[in-house]
Amino acid sequence: MANTKNNQRYQDPETKIKQAYLHLIAQEPDRRVKVIDLCQTAAINRATFYAHYYDVDAVAEAIQQAMMGELVDALQAADLQQVFTEVLRLIKSQRTFFYHVFVTARSAKSIDVLQTLAPRIEAARARSKSRLFDYQLAFFNGGLASLFQQWLEQDCRTPIPVLVDLLLSKVSGFEA
Q: What is the pLDDT of residues 59-108, one digit of tens each?
């Protein structure tokens, strides 16, 4: 049987590589992960690594795409309380990855947290009497990314319901 992408023998090394990447960034968040590090941690050879990924950045991108897919799913909740709760649960459950994204890599700007809520935001924009709506939205999005950073830096110690209440108090105009 050929090692195709749907074959378990093909998928196992991919899983090992992703787990190794997350393990390495959890150990040393500021360290630049190298192919040799991934191969040693995943107990695979370089040929196996390159059969699955072009470089280390491709591993990080694959993990980010998977996590962002889960984040998008969380943003589909019926109301904002549920949205915020699900997003915070996801961040807490995958804190190693999100710590790397929001704290270590400081790439929070690349993740427009509110982008998936576009229909709700457009409805709120239509109802808004403020000419400054887009500025308020940008400010909130930046604040949300900063909140995630702060929470992750504090090892997610603040209970999720407390943060949800804080967020809900700041977004009264976004409910459709």
A: 988 888 787 777 777 666 667 788 888 889 988 988 888 887 777 665 54
Query: How many other C-beta atoms lie within 10 A of the C-beta of residue 71?
Result: 19
Tokens at residue 61, please? Answer: 């991108």
For residue 121, count CB atoms less than 10 angstroms from its CB and return exposed for 0-12, middle for 13-18, buried for 19 or more: buried
Cα 167-73-55 angle, rounded to 5 deg: 105
CB of 140 closer than 8 Å to CB of 117: no
Owner of token pair 């947290």: 113
- Residue 64, CA distances (Å) to 69, 80, 127, 150 in order: 8, 23, 34, 20
